[in-house]
Specification:
This is YheC/YheD family protein. With 278 residues, the protein is of the alpha+beta class. It folds into two domains: 82 residues, Dna Ligase, domain 1, CATH 3.30.1490; 137 residues, D-amino Acid Aminotransferase, Chain A, domain 1 (2-Layer Sandwich), CATH 3.30.470.20. A six-stranded antiparallel sheet has the order 1-6-2-3-4-5, with helices on both faces. Strands 7, 8, 9, 10, 11 and 12 form a six-stranded antiparallel sheet that branches. It is globular.
Length: 278
């Protein structure tokens, strides 16, 4: 005779149906589609201006966006930690030189005399994965290396969105991505922005980022119910405008342990435990 769920639960072999349902309901939702999350942001008028132009990749779209922006990033629709991200550029002719195209994946950079040659090689790198193409943002630099910012936003135990941490990620000198797990270094926002802003302006800017993070969280939740945490990757250009590059619904909380203020990670951990992440 098959033992019922109720009997197993009484024997301590399984949680009760009520407890299991509560655990499932409390579990944070993961959303893999970068395009889906981008469209969620674009659906909010207050966020639309912070999202770089993003389209599905094909030859015509890539050629059009390179003509308009000169530099773009090609990304897999589903992927984490900067995996599969490629930087593509259209170089302007100088001193009679011919037009050329380049793309960099990892530390390897390749050059091509024609768009057709570049795109053929790009497709071989991409394979069958579905990719999107995004307007490239010229990132601010720290000691010669590009950096972006990660904004952590979480659902509190009181079911309110709160920005719980902001940290900077500096790219490895030879790479195009800033991810810590791909050779990047973690720095405080204050350290990275010191060259560009006064102390008071830095404080105000962080508050702006925190507000942007909360708006992004609400936008993603409106489309994907059950999301309880997001990591917002923000690029800052040389006019100090923040751009939302993408949103991660399973952000790494442990990078915040690198901050001197240990209260930041303590709160992140406490909230994550409340919704069953840690």
């Amino acid at each position: 005779m098959v033992t019922t769920w109720k009997k197993k639960a009484k024997k301590g072999k399984l949680p009760s149906k009520r407890a299991a349902a509560a655990t499932t309901a409390n579990k944070a939702r993961y959303v893999s589609s970068k395009m889906g999350k981008t469209r969620a942001l674009e659906a909010k008028a207050s966020l639309r201006g912070y999202v770089p132009a993003t389209k599905w990749l094909n030859a015509a779209v890539l050629q059009e966006m390179l003509s308009e922006h000169r530099m773009v990033y090609v990304k897999p629709n589903a992927g984490m930690c900067g995996d599969g991200v490629i930087r593509v550029e259209k170089a302007l002719p100088e001193n009679g030189a011919s037009l050329r195209y380049t793309f960099q994946s990892g530390v390897r950079k390749k050059s091509f005399a024609t768009f057709e040659g570049m795109y053929t090689a790009l497709r071989k790198v991409i394979g069958k994965r579905r990719y999107l193409v995004q307007k490239g943002i010229q990132l601010l630099k720290y000691k010669g290396n590009r950096f972006d910012l990660r904004v952590m936003v979480q659902m509190t135990p009181a079911a309110k969105w709160e920005t719980t941490g902001v940290i900077g990620r500096v790219a490895h000198p030879s790479k195009i991505v800033t991810n810590y797990h791909d050779g990047g270094k973690l720095k405080s926002v204050d350290t990275l922005l010191r060259r560009y802003m006064t102390a008071n302006d830095r404080k105000l800017y962080v508050k702006r980022l925190e507000q942007l993070g909360r708006k992004a969280a609400k936008a993603v939740e409106a489309r994907y119910k059950g999301v309880k945490e997001i990591g917002v990757d923000i690029a800052v250009d040389y006019e100090m405008k923040p751009w939302i590059l993408e949103v991660n619904t399973s952000p790494d909380p442990y990078i915040f342990r690198k901050l001197k203020d240990k209260r930041v990670y303590a709160k992140i951990k406490r909230y994550a435990k409340a919704y069953g992440r840690l």
